[in-house]
Amino acid sequence: MKAVCYMGVEKMRVETVPDPTIINPRDAIVRITSTCICGSDLHLYDGLVPTMEQGDIMGHEFMGEVVEVGPGIKPDKLKVGDRVVVPFTIACGNCFFCKRELWSCCNNSNPNYWIAEEMMGHSPSGLFGYTHMLGGYAGGQAQYARVPFADVGPLKLPDGIPDEKVVFLSDIHPTGYFGAVNADIEGGDTVAIWGCGPVGQFAIRSAFMLGAERVIAIDRFDYRLRMAQDGGAETINYEEVDDVVQTLKDMTGNIGPDRCIDAVGMEAHGHGLLYMMDRAKQMAKIEMDRPIALRQAIQACRKGGTVSVPGVYAGFDDKIPMGAFMNKALVMKTGQTHMMRFMKPLLEQIQKGDIDPSFVVSHRVPIDRAPEMYKIFRDKKENCTKVVLDPWADGAKAA
């Protein structure tokens, strides 16, 4: 089969690799019909997350048709022919954390848990296509994928809904919603969101769904800011203001936003001395992340407010304003998304017409163009907001 393989920093290649097979009784094999490049894939592309190996299959946002199931899966759970979207987190369904619906904290799905424990103290769940530290699982930027614990994760889909409306249930749609849920939004709140990429766009719309009166979105690219405005947000281009924190104070009567959402994570951009220090330390492997957005969210949030962090961070960060965090009595909520809490309710919203997630798609291309599209997406060329790959199309140029 064809698959997008990691070959080194800024090096992706479409290779012919062996088809996946059933290994464990609760496995399934999915023939992938749509798969995507996620913003968090760019952290791997840029070489910022350790334990990637040459030849690893990329991708964790995918959907398709079940073509084989293991003997441990009951037909009422999953069967050949089911059309499914697969969550990026892998969960066993039976451990301490799964029973509490903390699916992304599953205790049994990361066979390389000991690597994550050395960095984090405890291991989160395994993830598709996202380093050996998080399981070493082959990803979904391919024609087929093996799905472990397939009686827990995949969501069966009704007929008649196009892939582009439901494929984002694999990650970015629930992640944006989870970011808004974690912000503890109450009716009438003002919510500030750092980052107008796909997760930020879904967080904007989710914040309004949860009762926010105002959403203020922060980014630097006009096309992303326009998309945020289309979703009802006020916007700040951080390259056009001297101080994002002061600008937010000015917009909120010097109170600050009630809720702040960092939908950027470890590769935030900015300006000033602290940003330059972060870039230098990250390049020198002294600091793993560039936590500019997180610092600003903590400093800008009103006293007694909530900071939600759906943006991905990888390790240890410098100069986090813990004094502001503690003395302002803030709450912070973070985490990889507990996917199985949100996939079905969000599917129902799509079916009712409350939201059409396909608004984020800018590029639909054959999988052979994936290496090119990684660079275009990373460099924000061609007004690229979201790339959907077709594993079965030929390699001709597509719109």
Describe what you observe in this structure.
The structure is a single chain. This protein is of the alpha/beta class and 399 residues long. Helix content is 27%, strand content 20%. The protein has twelve helices and 17 strands. It has helices spanning 39-45, 113-120, 163-166, 172-182, 198-209, 222-230, 244-251, 273-283, 292-300, 322-327, 339-352, 370-378, and strands spanning 2-8, 11-16, 28-37, 62-69, 83-86, 89-90, 126-127, 144-147, 155-156, 190-194, 214-219, 234-237, 259-262, 306-309, 331-334, 363-366, 387-390. The strands form four sheets. Strands 3, 4, 5, 8, 9, 16 and 17 form a seven-stranded mixed beta sheet that branches. Strands 12-11-10-13-14-15 form a six-stranded parallel beta sheet, with helices on both faces. Helix 4 packs across helix 5 (198-209) and helix 7 runs parallel beside helix 9. The longest helix is centred in the last third of the chain and has 14 residues, at 339-352. The two termini are 24 Å apart.
Describe the SSE topology.
Elements: E1 2-8, E2 11-16, E3 28-37, H1 39-45, E4 62-69, E5 83-86, E6 89-90, H2 113-120, E7 126-127, E8 144-147, E9 155-156, H3 163-166, H4 172-182, E10 190-194, H5 198-209, E11 214-219, H6 222-230, E12 234-237, H7 244-251, E13 259-262, H8 273-283, H9 292-300, E14 306-309, H10 322-327, E15 331-334, H11 339-352, E16 363-366, H12 370-378, E17 387-390
Parallel strand pairs: 10-11, 10-13, 11-12, 13-14, 14-15, 16-17
Antiparallel strand pairs: 1-2, 3-4, 3-8, 3-17, 4-5, 5-9, 6-7
